[in-house]
Design goal:
Elements lengths: L3 E4 L6 H12 L4 E5 L5 H6 L2 E3 L5 H10 L4 E4 L5 H6 L1 H20 L5 E3 L2 E2 L23 H20 L2 E3 L1 E3 L1 E3 L12 H12 L1 E4 L7 E5 H13 L11 E2 L3 E3 L1 H11 L4 E4 L4 H6 L8 H7 L7 H17 L2
Parallel strand pairs: 1-2, 1-4, 2-3, 4-5, 5-7, 6-8, 8-12, 9-11, 10-14
Antiparallel strand pairs: 11-13
Bound molecules: serine.
């Protein structure tokens, strides 16, 4: 029987992943933790505890005491925020990973999921249909920490048998918990502002294409990778995950189909340079072949879903 620990359950991914895992593995077998309080739905459906992944002794103790077999470590400072506190962000992102790798090695929690990102690529990487194996010279502190993390994950797999699994998430789009401090956050904010004000001031320029994915697809595929037969995994660093690529202008045009008066203004800030260093589209054929990566939401379906759900959330319809 699997017993699963999710670190960072109050964040954008964790708040949805915990509920999905509980459906499959049973409420009592999915332990949700964070350094801040969790959403009500998580606290009410199963175990929740405050846990700081930077506290190694406590983390190891937790894994042993609860006989954890799998860990999802989602704790990180995202790209935009990391640029404001580079050394601190490096320290937090790397220590969070190294603690879970070491704790996995020293306990029975051998299976570990850790998210990487399209941020591992940099300005010298081919920008269109970025291959799985290519030039990687990230120039953001977030990207450097993700690339280093991928190397460490593979190292712990080869050297200590830690069952490390990872995907390079594109920008993730969801309505339950908003992201904080990322460069792709505009693609979430735009929907909330569309419902609230029918207008949005975008911090990226209109032609900035980035890969994105709707959260349902991201969660489904994450669990699929964790359930995959280890024999099928040709990579132990991190798999490319493409999702859908679009620009702010294309997204605004899609929203206008539902709200014809929707207005958008472009005021690029420091995050433009980050976005410019990332791929516009990704090739994820290795993940498709190895473990069956599949996605369902295109731009149209995702936009319709976001607008409907956020309308319900804000206006209570
Ligand atoms: N979505 C993240 C960010 O923008 C990238 O992984 O920081």
């Amino acid at each position: 029987m699997e017993r699963i620990l999710v670190i960072g359950c109050s964040g954008q991914i964790g708040s949805e992943l915990v509920l999905e895992l509980r459906k499959t593995y049973g409420n009592g077998n999915v332990f949700a933790t964070d350094i801040k309080n969790a959403p009500e739905e998580i606290r009410e459906t199963g175990p929740f505890q405050i846990l700081d992944v930077l506290d190694y002794k406590n983390l190891l103790h937790f894994l042993v005491r609860h006989k954890i077999t799998q860990v999802y470590n989602l704790a990180a400072v995202l790209s935009g925020n990391a640029e404001k506190i580079p050394l601190q962000a490096w320290d937090i992102n790397m220590r969070a990973l190294m603690n879970t790798l070491q704790a996995a090695q020293q306990s029975s929690a051998k299976k570990l999921f850790w998210p990487s990102s399209i941020a591992v690529f940099g300005p010298t990487t081919p920008r269109i249909s970025t291959p799985q194996l290519t030039v990687m010279e990230p120039n953001t502190v977030y990207g450097i920490s993700k690339l280093a993390g991928e190397r460490w994950g593979e190292y712990f797999y080869n050297k200590y048998g830690v069952d490390f699994r990872s995907v390079r998430y594109p920008g993730l789009i969801s309505y339950k918990t908003e992201p904080g401090g990322g460069t792709t956050d505009y693609a979430v904010e735009i929907f909330f502002e569309a419902i609230k004000k029918n207008c949005y001031e975008c911090f990226l320029s209109e032609d900035t294409a980035l890969p994105m994915m709707f959260m349902d697809d991201a969660i489904k595929n994450t669990i699929k990778l964790m359930d995959a037969d280890p024999e099928k995994l040709s990579l132990r660093s991190s798999y490319n995950m493409a999702g859908i690529s679009f620009t702010p202008k294309q997204l605004a045009a899609e929203i206008s189909k539902h709200q014809p008066d929707f207005c958008i203004e472009y005021k690029p800030d420091f995050r433009q340079a980050i976005a410019d260093s990332w791929p516009a589209s990704i090739d994820d054929s290795v993940a498709r072949a190895d473990w069956g990566l599949q996605d369902e939401f295109d731009l149209e379906k995702m936009s319709h879903h976001m607008l409907t759900k956020i309308d319900e959330k804000i206006n209570g319809i």
